[in-house]
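User: Fold this; tokens only.

Assistant: Input:
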Amino acid sequence: MVNLKEEALKLLKEALDELEAPKGSVLSGIQKLLRVARIIGEENISKWCDIQLGKVDYASPFIDYIDALVASEESKGKKNEERITEGVNRLKRLEELGIKADDVTFLIDEAGGGLAGIDFIEEKYADLVRTKRNNDGQFYKSNLSRRISYVRRAAHDKATNLFNKLAFSETPRSTFDYLREEVDDKLLDLNPELAEKLMVAFKSVSSENPEEWSHALTTCRRLIEGIADELFPPTQETNNGRKLGQAQYINRLWVFMDKAIESESNRKLAKAHIDLLGSYLENIHKLTNKGVHAALRKLEAVKTVFHTYLMLADILDYLKPGEAKLEKPLNIHVATLDELESFLGVSRAVAKEIVKLRVKHSTLTPKALGQIPGIGSKIVAKAEDLFSFEPAK
């Protein structure tokens, strides 16, 4: 999955390099800025770039703008309110398209390129420089130069502002990405092993291998059992006639919610979600036991993983952080959050990023570890001393 923030920052860096280089292409800088604007939904910048590229969609309204100016001048002293109103409306339309006062100054200058795109303007300027002429009868070198300088400066300002906005703000992400990251973080606090299983399941449904889809479904079922074990361990007792043994993990989650969730409406919502997912997973479990892998379409695996995240989001606010139950060897691929945090001397947030990275890439190298923000060469060296980087068996 492409990281939108990384892609946008990469394009902005390339755009700034073009715009800052004395012989850099303003056209290339504008094109890269336009791609970024479309990636992150910056409509005003996208329109501005289209105008500088000479997109024909903006030629007609701009000509209307010129007509509006003429109409306004002709109407002076004639009290022609209708024509003045029409001119004002055309001006508003132009402003809605992102054309500002500074742009107008250059767009009405025919000697500087007028409504032509920046590619034509750069080419025409280069031609006049090459032939050592000040003009060709229609376009003037000084006017073209001023236009190029203006566009270069304006594009650089926009690219710089976008770069700073993206570099020091959250990654552009979907609403599900937000929910998934919240669930992953909270589950890592509760039980890192279960959190890793859930992240691996999410990774598996992105595969085109039906065996991995089946694995994701099985993982989700075991994960819910693990959550139940964490929140309400198996017991020989019953609750309102419901058994609470190892196999009755849905019943045990019900009991936990009865005790942990005060709001009756919230309890009903959480229970309904768990019942739905539990029933669905039971049916899937029967199919997998029969070896019916062909029936397990990718969409069903994706829905199961998504529902698992949604179910956990329903009750995560009521989970209390616990300690991992199984003792792990000092291997970077299976080390718990507590081990990573204490042995490497990093924050909890950095330890979580290590776990996320090893899930994403399956294996972890010292070089990859060093790319995580907050981890420098000293921490990487410490990790190599304290942990094995051999793939865990």
